[in-house]
Design goal:
Distance between the termini: 23 Å
Number of domains: 1
CATH superfamily: 2-enoyl-CoA Hydratase, Chain A, domain 1
Order of helices and strands: EEHEHHEEHEEHHHEHEHHHH
CATH architecture: Alpha-Beta Complex
Shape: globular
Number of strands: 9
Helix content: 40-55%
Structural class: alpha/beta
Number of helices: 12
Length: 243
Amino acid sequence: MDHAVRWRQSGKVGHLTFCRSSKRNALRMADWAELSDMLEAISKAGVQALIVESSDPQVFSAGSDLVEVEALSERPENAAPFAMVMQRVMQQLGAGPMVTVAAIAGPCHGAGVAIAMACDIRVAGPRATFSIPPAKFGISYPSGDIRRLARLVGPGQAARLLYSAETIDAQEAARIGLVDLLDDDVAARCQDLARQIAANSADSIALLKGALDQHVSAAEPDQQFLDGFRTADFLRFAGRDRG
């Protein structure tokens, strides 16, 4: 199987790169597991600032691979492991002293938005777009991701994005607080920011991150998320001919 993610390190700065651009960086269950393993390795490698990016500036991530999501209608026993590995990745992105920076140069949708929200800082370019589409499929969004969304944009804007599943552009995402910085050159801005962070005290950053308390527990499967894979609307969606 082709690898959807890779990472490299330069001093105290790391780069975690999505590289399945032919599928819009959609992640399969095996990719989520590989991503979790990589984050575990990165946390032990002395990385102080990690840039989460795409090898193709035309796309950040379409989230989870819909082919595998649809297959959960036939193999519901796979839903809990799928949910758990996603939750573990989100926790790893926010946990520990390492600062994570999402470099969002292109479209960012579904679980791709969850990855971006789990990072400490989000930088978007003019071609970036955002949507959270589970309401189109008859499923829910993980509770931890919903809490992160509400924390970033407030409950009203969170409700708007979740219930309408509309796509917004980078300017609107910045206006409501979904992203923190806008820049025409996302890669350069994130690299500069990561270097600034890496030059500072690791002990201070660990204390500051602890005070911000951005961690969401991934100890148990998210039952309301799992229940979504049993709804009649999801089963109808999963049975569609998608060509």
